[in-house]
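--- STAGE predict ---
source: upstream dedup step, 1 unique chain passed
mode: sequence only
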Amino acid sequence: MLNHCLTRLAVGSTTTHLFHSRNMHLLLNKTLVNGDWISASSKKELAVLNPVNGSVVGNVPDMDASDTQKAIDSASKAFYSKEWYGLTAKDRSSLLKKWFNLLEVNKQEIANIMTAESGKPITESLGEIAYGNSFVEWFAEEARRIYGEIVPSPHPQKQIYITREPIGVAALITPWNFPHAMITRKAAAALAAGCTVVIKPAEDTPLTCLALAKLAEEAGFPKGVVNVITCSRSNAPSVGDLLCKSPLVAGISFTGSTEVGRLLYEKCASGIKRVGLELGGNAPFIVFESADLTKALNGALASKFRNCGQTCISSNRFLVHESLVDEFVARLTAAVNGLVIGDGKESNVQIGPLVNDAQLKKVSAIVADGVSKGAKVIVGGKALPDKGQLYYAPTIMTNIQPNMRLYTEEIFGPVVSIITFKTEDEALRIANDTRRGLAGYFFSENISQVFRVARRLEVGMIGINDGAISAAEAAFGGVKESGIGREGSKHGIDDYVEMKYLCLGNLE
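--- STAGE serialize ---
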């Protein structure tokens, strides 16, 4: 358990979380480039803080563009090396299986690290690891199914073939809210295709990434195939700029905000790079008149409060039919009041802190904006300084109007905003009235309505009578300004391969 692995040691005025050295070989303070564990060339370090109390979990290298260039060079050299390029699909599959097995064996230690640096409850960390590991297992199998095609030729003396080959070096830029799964979902697909990778984890949660890289090394991936760049927010722009503009990087995969994704997309345009973007959402959660309220309430809790509401597919706008709204709010309020808030290392905790001060300020400002314009707070609506500096109470708000930020913006926090509707057309108009289109949820026991709404809802993923939709087998991604491409599923390989047409002519 996490509380057996962490101790608190007072050093002057600073409280530091230390991991006992026994069984903690994955807590690392260097990063992996070209098969070596190194510091930043500047020797600068970045302190990784526990959101629960601000204590230091560990320190990682604060790398800059020059360090990033070394990682890119390493990945490029490894891509063309006999040790990697010469491997068969079966060989790559075997390496991914070894990585998966090591991830499974070490899941408790990785969960301890993740909870310490992200603040999410230990049960959620373990759940994320099971989810993240499933991508490594899935793409280990898909590595052997990257099929080509034989196309019937219009000419009797020609034969047409289409093959699929790795694009080269893939730069993977990942977020803090899922520091394990967002890496494995990208890296496993890229490695299965035969690419090499440079991973830039989020500034708040780099330790989980380093643990994954250590286990990839132990699995036997050749040096330079997996590289990691850790850096502070001040160095992130120059690092990202180089990853986007370097001619040695063939593709970028990014998960994060639409605003940052737009900037990266622009930077990649000069090199016509392959781009995969999984960006922000504004997910509607619709409860139709025929809905089973118990299913809807369970779905609301699952889709809203996981990771304290800090998920890209978290329900953002709750559209509830006017005939059900009073009962729905009453029952949801009772459930929210029963959520256990605290330090994620405790096994019974369901709600941890927000990840950093910027998130706390954003959530507080969005709620304050709603209140100032007439929204009603049913429960919560405030920070919880008695719990810690970054805790925010699970919140339910009603009387939401179109001029409120609650109506139009992705909250990324534990806030439920209730909007009532009368008709199916009205619900769909509100749901689709956004430039985001990542995920959506709706609850209905009317089978005709299920098919109508599923067809008309403008999102890339839909949970129908279900609030938990993620799986390695499913195609994850959005429409509109929520991204380009899909991750997971058999389509997750597509961002990392090129089609090559072979024309064999002059056949007798």
